[in-house]
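Quick one: structure tokens for this chain, please?
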Amino acid sequence: MGAKVTLKKIAKELGVSTSTVSKALSDSHEISQDTRDKVKAFAKLYNYKPNNLALKLRHQRSMVIGVIIPEIVHHFFSTVISGIESGANKRGYNVMVCFSNESYQKEVLNIEMLAGGSVDGFLVSIAKETQELMDFRHFEELKEEVPLVLFDRVHPKILCDKVVVDDIGGGFKATEHLIKTGCKNVAIITTPDHISVGLERKRGYLKALETYEIEMNKDYIIHVNEKYDIPTQIKKLLELPNVPDGIFAVNEIYAATAMKIAQDKGIQIPDELSIIGFTDGYISQFSNPSLTTLAQHGYEMGEKAIELLLNRIESKVPDVPYTTEIINVELKFGNSTKKIS
């Protein structure tokens, strides 16, 4: 088949309708798995490429999704984008990624730049400064134009579809594991409370202390302000008269920083101090010792977020109720914590 492969040609070769081929390539559950597999295999064999211009004209859409994330340096966000792109491409959409750099103003500018017909919908993880200012007017204005799905960092005041990690459950699991390994004085290194993920993980930490009837010590709760030197703030925790024997850090950067400070002070890990992080990125894997941490499943979050958004874009039923999807987390055991005896 030297000529360009089209939906019609695939349909003719396989003896099905063009509608069946189109739905199979979009992974529609209306089509049997066997037919989907055959269509995809045939399309791959003959290097079929969808006609994006025809799709745009047919649907009167740009077939582009706008994604705004705080920053790309975190391994977690890079995995989320991979999941988003995979899910979007399967359904004939492309992805345009912008960065807010944790700035409210940059977040607003990104939305203004992409809105107005450039994209069919938005996936956004809210910037730290936006959460601090509690100014969400740009999201409310955006929702009047195109669908919006928030992921990871969300806020209850913004009514839309959302995908979040089970942050409370993760905080509980991490703290419970430290307690079960014998830790008596468990501390937490977290973000300021206006950052949703840090607040929820702290709630999980406090819930675990209450469940195991351990009295909360305010000195063991460190809220890191990233406008200032992070190691200096964390160092105070390890200079307390009664140094904690367990630390739950709400991200892997805080966990790795605490481990480095402890090692510099001659504190043995995990014999004298156990540390758990959050996010199973490269820092966790290549720390020495390797970090026990919580896997967030960023790729799965990206896939679920784009699925919600595209279903909203393509829905022919108005006023479908908003939904919040929760991605479970799981402990990944490294050598920074003791074994449960």
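The chain has three domains: 7-49, 62-165+297-327, 167-296.
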